[in-house]
Amino acid sequence: MMHLLVTRPEPDAQATAERLAALGIDSTLAPVMSRQTLSPNLPPARGFAGIAITSTNALRAMEDLGVLEAFRTIPAFAVGDRTAHEARLLGFTSVEAADGTLASLVTRIALARLPGPLFYPSGKHLSGDLAQALAPHGLMVVTSPVYEMIAETSLPKDVLTGLTEDRFGGVLLYSRRSAEIFAELATTRLPEIQKRRLPMLCLSENVAAALIENHFSRILLADHPSEDAMMALALAFAREQTGA
């Protein structure tokens, strides 16, 4: 049976493991980051014409802070279907989903022609500047970091051993920062030849770029930046490797 290493944070790591198991793929969880809710001085919800959501972690952090109720009736613009689904589950009444990328989210928000400013609850470490991207469209964005993803300082001993002994058929990576952290934690233990042959299943080219910079060269890309596409990639890869 194919055995993959899942690096995304909890609780998403467990959800991914369950989906892999349903496909007949075994997995080991080794989150390289964990979420920490910040204590921001958030602006009042009134006056905002929309809210941008680029991560389910932002929704979880807002829930931790007890501020979701005030924002639920504001039109929400989610980066992808999964984030949109989570927003609806948490009670947002108007949710539009982009196609999984920041560029598609910018387009979706720009086309909405909002009559006022946009609120953006973000992570402390931004992979893209939503405010700058929307500025040419004349839209003001108020960005408030509500969570931080804390990098792990090491991989579990059994995971490091498994990597050096080629026990994992591949590694699943969902963000550029997680790829950077994984590469940093693994690179001192893996010789160059193992780095070159270890399959890295990546959500996007942006994720893959961080691995290529660290000499991981066996890169597989999802057709679309979504969990469904990652599962399709994992299944196709497992079937190719096992001949099933």
UniProtKB/TrEMBL annotation:
Database matches in Gene3D superfamilies: 3.40.50.10090
SUPFAM superfamilies attached to this UniProt entry: HemD-like (SSF69618)
A Pfam family: HEM4
Listed GO biological process terms: tetrapyrrole biosynthetic process
GO terms assigned for molecular function: uroporphyrinogen-III synthase activity
Tetrapyrrole biosynthesis uroporphyrinogen III synthase domain location: 15-231
Domain of life: Bacteria
Identification of the protein by name: Tetrapyrrole biosynthesis uroporphyrinogen III synthase domain-containing protein
